[in-house]
Design a protein that fits this description.
There is one protein chain. By secondary structure, this protein is an alpha/beta fold. It has 24 helices and 32 strands. The strands form 8 sheets. Strands 13-14-12-15-16-11-17 form a 7-stranded parallel beta sheet, with helices on both faces. Helix 7 crosses helix 8. It is globular and about 100 Å long. The N terminus is likely disordered.
């Protein structure tokens, strides 16, 4: 039976996969006797859900006894896991994500677990052996007869196919309800574990080796296994220079025995250098920072430090020495970095210093690699985790320190459900573990620096570059004057001369242009309309490399058109300048230069970052050009020149953080220059040379920039003086999206008026988003200025649930995002 009535039931509280936000809650299922004592909180199970009792994956949040009368519950159908995949801390983190990011329980679960652990459920029907025919109607008996006589699975399924046959569908459903037909769920994990064939000396051989007559080649195998205990078959063949036939004969004669061992797909290099850690010597300034953090590391109480250090001051060396002490204390560590582009250098460095105790977590790994790294962490084979924002969920136990390098980067904020802040998750985990949270940057976020100034964080500073090397000389180039002097290229005369100098003196150059493609806009000369992506309200970008128009929002592509779709004109004007055109023009200006382009179009393969950055570090290229991925965290001692092109564009992105991001990007990319023995230079090309943000960035004066920025935010009431919540509404129908936005505003007004909310609230909108249509969805937003506390989150949750409850908005996506993007 699918249901049970009893005075006492053993209950599993289950969060179900793919439940709508408005219906997301723990659902109660009774635990059948077959699973008694086997189901624990943190395990995944298969449960029937909804009116059709379709099988879905769920996570067990709690197991309890329930005294009940006349209450009908559905049973847990089967187990996905033999033991919990989420421990108590991770389960609490699921609750925390649900509470703080307005996601569903299972959205949180899928974020915490690697996607390789996801399972597919395929339902199939089987006929029960015990059938009481007297209880069946004539139609039901006919179907049962056909099922019994079916000669194959295909014929069996065809009998039960109810497509476009409502009467037959009711009959099949009746047979299921009467338990004549049972529904079986086949479960397959998305990525399988990998195993390898291993061999070792058999007990027979070890008891009396002289009883076996073995050849010289076989003796080499025996000697290897005597020294090492066991080895993979392929390793034996390679090291001993023998074929698999030799190994097979040893197995056949019972000299060896075979077994299987799980093999982990470990990404990155595995080169460990003994004693390398002792070669890192801290300066007096670094040692002062190290000692202050170390003192608190041993106290086992949560504490947040902000390390503000100029570019090249050696923050990473401080991080490494702190992690070394953390491991010595028997604890574990997480090192977070903002860009996947930074992982090859960091991981290579950490593996050289700490060996295979380092695990890597980021989205460019294969599903198998991510799954295996997760298992290595969970089994305590890895004690240091390096990665991008998802690494903050690594299942480490006894965390001693979490380090966030370049903590102000927006890549630390998730744009999809759950819309979490990595910093907020890191704080939560540090509270649980009594760990130190160390935020580091040459350009801290305004919010973090504000909290440090108020004493909420402890501020630490590195004001000098390591080994007393100088900061680069930074020059602002007025491109308006270049145009007046007849230079209409994208490169100023002085930048061209400096690049020439570097090529002649065998020094390297980095050029940053934060726009991909060749031409950024193709416009009709008659009507003035740009060629738009049909799925988005965004102009196409022309990519010369594959002669196609590409939308950088949804990824759609199209062939270049010869006729304007708006007016029929055949003449177009290409404008804008991207990295592809930049590469082409540099090749024309500097024919002998070896140029490396780094952007999303050249780094899509799994090992592209690692291979290309390594080639540049070896001196195989003279000039590296790219987007913001080359602007932070990279260390190339031979780079003495940096050029930033079209630097003004990012100042006017429409977000209140645009000045902060521009200052950060310029400061960081300029800091890539002069990190070796030679003095660095940097050139910022702009049409607004007097802008204070550019001048402060040129002077590397973060304190002055912060004072200007915090004064403006205080006047306009922007974070950190408040929190900003964006309620986003999107739909394939513009009318429905617009109506849902208006309804959401009405609900906000209704709640405010009826409950007389006691917290400060400012509501702006609804208005169309800056990109009004993306990937076929029309988008609106409502902006709320508030304080992120429990009362406000309850208010927001009420708004979302009430809006989602309207049937006409069933296909409208409504979400809330605190302190995310507002454009």
């Amino acid at each position: 039976m699918d249901e049970l009535q009893s005075d006492m039931l053993r209950i599993a509280e289950v969060a179900v996969y793919n439940a709508a936000f408005s219906f997301d809650k723990p659902y109660s299922y009774y635990i059948p006797d077959a699973f008694a004592g086997k189901i624990l909180a943190g395990m995944r199970v298969i449960v029937p859900f909804g009116q059709g009792s379709r099988k879905r994956t769920g996570i067990v949040l709690n197991v309890t006894g329930m005294k009940t009368q006349n209450v009908s519950l559905k049973p847990v159908v089967s187990l996905v896991d033999e033991k919990p995949v989420l421990n108590d801390e991770m389960l609490e983190l699921v609750y925390w994500l649900k509470e703080n990011t307005f996601c569903t329980y299972y959205d949180a679960v899928r974020t915490v677990l690697p996607s390789g652990m996801n399972v597919r459920i395929k339902e199939r029907y089987e006929l029960n052996s015990d059938i009481i025919y007297s209880s069946l109607s004539e139609e039901e008996r006919n179907i049962v007869c056909f099922l019994k006589n079916a000669s194959s699975r295909r014929e069996f399924d065809a009998v039960l196919d109810t497509h476009d046959d409502h009467e037959k569908e009711l009959t099949v459903r009746s047979l299921i309800d009467k338990n004549v037909i049972k529904v079986v769920a086949d479960i397959n994990q998305k990525v399988s574990d990998r195993f390898i064939s291993m061999v070792r000396l058999s007990d027979y051989f070890l008891q009396d080796p002289s009883a076996f007559n073995i050849t010289d080649k076989q003796k080499r195998v025996v000697r290897l296994l005597s020294e090492n205990g066991s080895a993979a078959v392929r390793e034996v063949c390679y090291i001993c220079s023998v074929t698999q036939v030799v190994v097979k004969n040893l197995l056949k004669n019972k000299v060896l025995e075979e077994f299987v061992s799980e093999e982990f797909r470990v990404p990155g290099s595995k080169i460990f250098e003994e004693g390398a850690l002792s070669k890192i010597i801290l300066s007096d300034e670094q040692k002062a920072v190290f000692d202050r953090v170390l003192t608190h590391l041993y106290e086992r109480s949560p504490k947040c430090f902000l390390l503000h250090g100029v570019t090249g001051s050696g923050k990473t060396s401080v991080f490494i020495k702190l992690i070394e002490k953390t491991l010595e204390a028997g604890k574990t560590a997480i090192m977070l970095i903002p860009e996947i582009a930074l992982t090859p250098q960091i991981v290579t460095q950490f593996r050289r210093l700490f060996g295979e105790t380092v695990a890597v977590v980021h989205s460019s790994l294969s599903l198998g690699q991510r799954l295996d790294e997760y298992k290595r962490i969970q089994r305590k084979m890895a004690r240091i985790v390096v990665g991008t924002r998802s690494a903050v969920f690594a299942p480490l136990s006894d965390i001693g320190i979490i380090i966030m390098d370049e903590e102000g980067e927006r890549s630390y904020k998730s744009d999809n459900a759950p819309r979490y802040s990595t910093l907020a998750v890191a704080k939560q985990r540090c509270r649980v573990h009594g760990a130190v949270l160390l935020l580091g940057s040459a350009t801290p976020s305004v919010e973090s620096y504000y909290y440090a100034k108020k004493g909420i964080y402890e501020l630490l500073e590195l004001k000098n570059r390591y080994n007393s090397s100088e900061l680069p000389d930074v020059h602002i180039v007025d491109m308006g004057l270049e145009r007046n002097n007849g230079n209409h290229s994208e490169f100023s005369e002085v930048l061209i001369d400096e690049i020439n100098y570097n090529i002649l003196h065998k020094e390297q150059t980095i050029l940053l242009l934060n726009r991909r493609g060749y031409h950024t806009v193709i416009t009709c000369t008659q009507c003035g309309e740009p060629l738009h992506c049909p799925n988005c309200s965004i102009p196409y970008t022309y990519h010369k490399a594959n002669n196609s128009l590409v939308c950088h929002y949804c990824g759609s592509t199209a062939e270049p058109v010869s006729v304007c779709p708006s007016c029929g004109c055949r003449i177009f004007r290409p404008t804008g300048f991207g990295t592809q055109k930049m590469e082409e023009q540099l090749s024309e200006l500097f024919g002998s230069a070896r140029i490396l382009r780094m952007d999303a179009d050249t780094t899509f393969s799994r090992y592209a970052y690692e291979q290309k950055f390594a080639a540049f570090a070896r001196g195989e290229y003279d000039i590296m050009i790219g987007t913001q991925m080359i602007g932070k965290g990279l260390d190339f001692p031979d780079v003495t020149l940096v050029g930033v092109l079209s630097v003004d564009k990012s100042l006017y992105s429409g977000d209140f953080r645009s000045y902060e991001r521009t200052f950060s990007l310029i400061t960081q990319v300029v800091g890539r220059s002069g990190r070796g023995n030679k003095k660095g230079r940097a050139y910022l090309q702009t049409f607004i040379p007097d802008h204070y943000v550019l001048n402060m960035a040129a002077n590397q004066d973060y304190e002055a920039f912060y004072n200007e920025e915090i004064a403006m935010r205080r006047a306009l009431i922007f974070p950190p003086l408040c929190d900003i919540c964006v309620i986003g509404i999107s739909s394939a129908s513009d009318v429905k999206a617009h109506n849902a936005a208006d309804t959401t505003l009405d609900i906000i007004k209704d709640i405010v008026n009826k409950s007389k909310v006691s917290f400060p609230l400012r509501v702006l909108g609804p208005v169309r988003s800056s990109a009004a249509k993306v990937n076929g969805k029309y988008r609106y937003r409502i902006i709320l200025k508030c304080k992120n506390n429990n009362m406000v989150r309850m208010f927001l949750r009420d708004v979302l649930i009430r809006t989602s409850g309207f049937r006409e908005f069933a296909n409208v996506n409504i979400y809330a995002d605190i302190n995310g993007e507002i454009v």
